[in-house]
Amino acid sequence: MSPPSGTASGPVVTPSRVVAGLCLFAPFVSMLWVGSYDSIDPKFIGIPFFYWYQMLWVPISTLLTCIAYVLVRREQAARKQATRPPEGSEPK
Amino acid sequence: MNEGVNVVALIVFLFFFALVTIMGFLAARWRKAAVADNLDEWGLGGRSFGTWITWFLLGGDLYTAYTFVAVPAAIYAAGAAGFFAVPYTILVYPLIFLFLPRLWSVSHRHGYVTTSDFVKGRFGSKSLSLAVAVTGILATMPYIALQLVGIQAVLDVMGLGGGESTHWFVKDLPLLIAFGVLAAYTYSSGLRAPALIAFVKDALIYIVIAVAIIYIPIELGGFDDIFNDAGEKLSESGGSLVAGPDAHWAYATLALGSALALFMYPHAITATLSSRSREVIRRNTTILPLYSLMLGLLALLGFMGLAAGIEVDNGQLIVPQLFENMFPAWFAGVAFAAIGIGALVPAAIMSIAAANLFTRNIYRDFLKPDATPAQETKVSKITSLVVKVGALVFVLTLDKSTAINFQLLGGLWIVQTFPALVGGLFTRWFHRWALLAGWAVGMTYGTIAAYNVSSPTQKHFGGSNDTIPMIGEIGYIGLTAFVLNALVTVAMTFVLRAMKAPDGVDETTPADYLADAGDPKVKDLPPQRAEPEAEQREPTSGS
């Protein structure tokens, strides 16, 4: 999610940045919309919906952040390729 | 509450305590650099930590003993409302994914150790930097004090608290010893000590949670029974298993406000800046949520406490008491050690972070501008001691609820530094004086609003929620204050820009915010360091 002031090369808004942004934004919508999960049923192994649904969002948001990470990384690598000749200097 | 001392649990507890003490002192030699007499070494562990160490360090830092004690205690007292800690920690990671890598980059280019260093460099304003530093120190102090409360809870349940008649010195002796030891190894090893100890802490915590979440429900007849019993008990005391429509705003604003605040805390930033590269931070945002899962499971222990019919007069004791009642003595000892060590790690990091703030942004900026790195380190080490003694005095002399009140205030204070810090990372449009004005308004509003909240047991500081002006719903004061702060900052910036008020000097460039390890200039700064590449021999994070 490099912001506008960053590198001079390439457009600021790219498809992969938009997708990454949405991935990062989704947990905010789901978690702040408390009305969508404020109920006891359906239960899961006896745990009310309120609790297991929010805990389910831990792995979901993790997955979304991972996707954002991969997208951003890929784009950065592509930009680096474009701006300077390939070199193996970047430690992983 | 307990008759006599639980000997087996105490022996196990002491074993782990001794283990981490030895590790704490040995940590000074771990990954040691050639020139160790500067803040980058003592205060940031040489800025050399890889993905896994950073993960343990941040986990040890953010999920503190107080969290382990307070989250189930909140559930035990009120039910669903206490569960906001889970959405809160879910929201933290997408948020920091956006701004922490930028902070890491610019801090590495310019050798910043604290957030105030950055704010000063970005806006060229010593007063704004001082405001951020003072807020950070004020917010951290009660947090350290609450770690002591966590240790106290464990000691109490083990029977070391003594009775009402015990002389105060004897009663507090175990706590004094624990903190003396902590202070000594933090002084000698710096950030390396909590980094190393965090491994033990987290290993213990994960084991304890895994066992508790399987073993206790079996003992209590499954989750169905647990939630039925807990629901009945809660309805008697006015709590509930769901938040209820009136509490949606409070729940959501608490989650969001706390998420915004978390990485404004100096200790969170210290752990972040100690990492080796920008990638380490991004990668960490994808693995840190494992702790959120653990926190959610931990919160469920509050319901188990209710279902098990445990009665404690102090809600903070619910988790230790549950362990004591449900587990065999030796495993209760392991669980107590997990909580106790869980207090030591963050207390060490917090005192280092507060000490760094004092040294860099008060001592060096205002008292002794020509301080050498060696002098800075000396001052930081001594300040870390002073901060801990202060926290100890706090806990021993003042009422415990005072520490909790200050912690509540700390949270809503620290989020007021968000516009200067995160705003500053993305844009220089905000005027330095506008940021200062917004900060002052947010701090004042938050403090007054919190002071005026009453609860059945307290006349002031009765909670963190209040009616949101204009909206009319009940919501988290910290978030309201933050919105107010942001509005004032934007409005004042327009005014000041129109008046052509002078801008401070910005010493950063756009490229600074994207620099990564290996880029030119990154390795030149922190001054007088040996080649940072020489330290990239961390075995655990091969990628």
Automatic annotation (TrEMBL), chain A:
Which InterPro entries does its entry note? DUF3311
Extract the Pfam families matched here.
DUF3311
Q: Where are the transmembrane segments?
A: 18-37, 49-72
Q: Which UniProt keywords apply?
A: Membrane, Transmembrane, Transmembrane helix
Q: Which domain of life is it from?
A: Bacteria
- Name the PANTHER family on file: BSL5891 PROTEIN
Write down what this protein is called: DUF3311 domain-containing protein
Taxonomy-wise, where does this protein's organism fall, top ranks first? Bacteria, Bacillati, Actinomycetota, Actinomycetes, Kitasatosporales
UniProtKB/TrEMBL annotation, chain B:
Q: Which UniProt keywords apply?
A: Membrane, Transmembrane, Transmembrane helix, Transport
- Is this entry keyworded RNA-binding? no
Q: Which InterPro entries match?
A: Na/Glc_symporter_sf, Na/solute_symporter, Sodium:Solute_Symporter
Q: Where is this region: Disordered?
A: 509-543
Q: Which PROSITE patterns match?
A: NA_SOLUT_SYMP_3
Membrane recorded as keyword: yes
Q: Which PANTHER family match?
A: MONOCARBOXYLIC ACID PERMEASE, SODIUM/PROLINE SYMPORTER-RELATED
The entry sums up its family as follows: Belongs to the sodium:solute symporter (SSF) (TC 2.A.21) family.
Record-given protein name: Sodium:solute symporter
Name the source organism: Streptomyces gossypii
Its organism's taxonomic lineage begins at:
Bacteria, Bacillati, Actinomycetota, Actinomycetes, Kitasatosporales
